[in-house]
Automatic annotation (TrEMBL):
PANTHER family: OXIDOREDUCTASE HTATIP2. InterPro entries: Him1/Fmp52 (IPR014843), NAD(P)-bd_dom_sf (IPR036291). Gene3D superfamilies: NAD(P)-binding Rossmann-like Domain (3.40.50.720). The keyword Membrane applies. It is found in: Mitochondrion outer membrane. It comes from Kwoniella europaea PYCC6329. The keyword Cytoplasm does not apply. Pfam families: HIM1. Transmembrane segments: none annotated. Keywords: Membrane, Mitochondrion, Mitochondrion outer membrane, Transit peptide. One of its GO terms (cellular component) is mitochondrial outer membrane. One of its GO terms (biological process) is import into nucleus. Belongs to the FMP52 family. This is NAD(P)-binding domain-containing protein.
Amino acid sequence: MSTTPTPVTLVGATGLTGSASLRSLLLSSHPFNLTVLTRRPLSESITPSSSNPSTTLATKIHEDLFSVPKDAGLKIAEKGGVYISALGTTRAKAGGTAEQEKIDLVLNRDLAKKAKDDGADTMILVSTGGANHTSRFFYMRIKGQLEEDVKAMGFKNVIILRPGALLGERTESRPGEWFVQTPFRLLRKVGLSFNSATQAEDVGACIAELAANVPEEKVLTLWDDKITYYAKKYRESNPSSSA
C-alpha cells in the first residue's frame, strides 16, 4: 500500500452520500489529503482517524459556490488528485426546476471543469439510476447531461455511480423520500435485496475504495450491484470502519 497520501477534493459532503463518503475516506487505512469544499462548516466531531495519522482534512467554506469556478486564483483540486462530486439538491429545496438545474447540472459541471483545469486526474461522480441525457424526465435528463459533460472534459479516469433508491438518514427532511425508502427497508429486514436500492453507506465505502485504488478504465459506470461489490472490498481492507 502506498504511503503517499492521495489528494482528494470532495464537494457535497453535507448530503447523504457525501457525508457517507467523507466518513469512509477518513476511516480508510489508505492515506488521503482531503479537502472538503462546502457552503457550511462541518461538525467538529468530523476528524481524521487516529489510526491513520497520515490522513489530513482541510475544509474550505464558500457560502456562494457559484463564485468558485470564476475565481482564477483559487485552486480546488491538486495535480494528479481525485475530485469527488456528491453535490445535488431537490426541486423543492432549490425553488423550482430551473434553480435545481443550476445546481445539479451547471454548478456541478463548472466545478468539475475547474478541478480538471487544476490538474485532477480522476473524477468520481454520484449520479442516479436511469440517468440519460435524452430522457423526457427532467431529473434523469440533467443527470445524464452532467455525465456526458464530465466524460468529455478529458479526465484520465471518470467513475460514475448510478445508485437507485438511496437508503439512509439525511440531515434534512425529505418527506416524499420516506415512502420510497420504507418498503425497501422492511423487505431488507427479512433478507431480501434489490438492485434498485443501495445504502448510502455503501456508496461512501465504494467511493473511498475507488479513490484509494483507481481502476484502469477511462470511463467506469457502476450500478447498485457493483457499488455494493466495491463497498465490500473497502470493508475487507478496513474492518474497523464497520465497528
